[in-house]
Amino acid sequence: MTEPNHDYKAGSLVVFTEGEWSDFGLLGHFVVLRDMGLADLRAAAASGQDPTVEYGFGPEGMLAALIREGFLLALDAREIHLGGYGCCPEEFRPPAAPASSGDATP
User: Fold this and answer.
1) What phi, psi does 43 have (nearest 5°)?
2) Exposure class string for 38-66: b at 16+ Cβ within 10 A, else e
3) CA nearest neighbour of 47 among 60, 32, 28, 34
4) CB neighbours (10 Å) of residue 8?
5) What is the pLDDT of residue 47?
6) Has residue 98 been placed in a domain?
7) Which residue, among 72, 71, 74, has the nearest Cα to 29 in the 3D structure?
8) Does 105 fall in a domain?
């Protein structure tokens, strides 16, 4: 298994996700404002912890630290879901052709 590349260049787009299977979730889309790497992610994870509360570590704290330190800017992005298992939702399908009346007059 190869190690993931944790070099994120300024100007690139990243999406943060968490969870697995039915608990999988998207946390947000961001633009990288200045180069960051694994050391920066580890530092943000550490500074995002709050030992005074139960479950005091979470991805939200890490993201807040990355934003606070000037590494990320949150984007106002939306999702367009194109259906499941190769099916496209009705609203994206072309309208049906009008039915012919059978009249052959020019």
Assistant:
1) -65, -40
2) eebbebbbeebeeeeeeeeebbebbbebb
3) 60
4) 21
5) 82
6) no
7) 74
8) no
Mean pLDDT score of the chain, rounded to an integer?
A: 81
Q: Which domain holds residue 17?
A: 13-92
Torsion 92-93-99-100 (CA) sign: positive
**What is the distance between the alpha carbons of residues 106 and 94, in angstroms, rounded to a whole number?**
27
CB 65 within 8 A of CB 59: no
Q: Count of domains in the chain?
A: 1
Which residue's entry shows tokens 């994120």?
8
Please say if the pLDDT value at position 37 is more than 90: yes
Closest to 66 in 3D by CA, of 101, 31, 17, 105 = 31
- Written as six digits, the tokens of 15 are 């999406």
Residue 7 falls within a domain, yes or no? no
pLDDT of residue 2: 53
Write the DSSP assignment of 47-85 as a string of letters.
HT--TTSTT---HHHHHHHHHHTTSEEE---------ST
Residue 60 lies in a domain: yes
